[in-house]
Amino acid sequence: MMFRRLWVAAVLLSAGVFSSAATAQPATQQWVRLGCQTVGFHIDRDVIRVGSQSGTFRAIRLRVANNAIHLLDLKVVYGNGAPDDIPVRAEIRAGGQTGALDLRGRDRVIQRIEMIYRSRPSFRGNAIVCAEGLAVVAAGPRPGPERSWVPLGCRNVGFNVDRDIINVGGREGKFRAIRLRVRGNDIFMYDLKVIYGNGAPDDIPVRMDLRAGTVSHAIDLKGERRFIQRIDMIYRSRPSFRGQAEVCVDGIE
After folding, report:
1. How far apart are the C-alpha atoms of 180 and 157, rounded to whole Å?
2. What pLDDT digit, counting tens, does each position of 185-196 carry?
3. pTM
4. Given Cys at both, which of 27, 116, 137, 151 links 73, Cβ 3.0 to 4.6 Å?
């Protein structure tokens, strides 16, 4: 009888241990978008400002869209002001990305990322470079799939009323919303139209001032997730010593 009780207790204990192991959620890692910049055909030096509110990271990587770039220099400045020169000189094709570039120490706060690069002159236009950081997510309930904003293209805005088109195409995937990002100068958006993959137009009711350095709210698209053929914009920037504005459009899947 004593042997039977010990055997039952061992089985229950074993079941409890295995149950706990099955429900435990280990810490996970995920890539987080830190910021994007547009690259001209001449040698450019750009800064992506991150800040401590974004958390800590153990590695970064660069993703390139629209055109190839040649990366000449990459520097990460940590939250305490210490610089970290990352030894990477590479040609990165449009649609490509670097491998994971480890940061000094373990998990670091990033103040900013400095890049020196140029894009390849071609009919594709300016390249778009985005930096991502590898963040560690603490143990807890398993989240759903992470969605991130995808850069669809950028245009420079003159002081007169401009009409510009950003060609997207089905290769970029399906999107459920878009947003606008502005830098360099303030703009006034008069009209925004999305043409879907089947040719159907979607006039977005948006007339607004967008200040330099700001991002619009998420603008939902008709239906659930749609292919975007192109985005038509009518706008103007505000005449000032800042010069021309730049408007970028992002999509979320």
Report:
1. 13
2. 888 888 899 999
3. 0.47
4. 116
